[in-house]
Amino acid sequence: MSTTGIWAVVPVKNFERAKTRxxxxxxxxxxRQFCRAxxxxxxxxxxxxxxxxxxxxxxxxxxxxxxxRSYGADVLNDPNESGPSAAVSLGAQWLAxxxxxxGMFAVMADTPLVTxxxxxxxxxxxxxxxxxxxxxARDGIGTNAAICSPTNVIALCFDGKSFPLHRKLAKMRxxxxxxxxxxxxxxxxxxxxxxxxxxxxxxxxxxxxELAADADVLTExxx
Length: 223
What we know:
By secondary structure, the protein is an alpha/beta fold. The protein is about 40% helix and about 15% strand.
């Protein structure tokens, strides 16, 4: 990692309480393991993106902390776990203390299909400050990732419907706005429908292997 000065911020909900909307598709133990696998896939892609300045994971989950450190990420404690928007805001405040940090790449931990090459492409095409790059969810309403240069150029919100707001705020701040539509980043896995779409996409991810380890779960999801 080195050149851009842009750091990734990855908010991670406690695995015990994560992805409750998948409860009808995955039993609790399998759901926790799936969340761990998605985080590993996300962090591996970020670690392997050559021009990223660093990674900070915002969480209070002990397993997530261990995983983050195993991928060379810094860890910021999220004691109140107020949601991804608040966690990203904590990350932005932490990055503001790093003199060499020129921007923040907020990335959700439930987009396991994204690759290092795709991340590098997004970083390369991000404009000079003030600039905002937005990567919408596949429904075109939510935001799954965003780069802000400087880190506080706009306040990021991740509530499933923030893409139009982010675009509006960036324009109001006079920032260059870059919209990147990417299938891998667009597929965040929150619902049974998302899970089916993920399984229908061939990949060598740990998340896919985790699901493949349980044939009964796969059969039920695909039914």
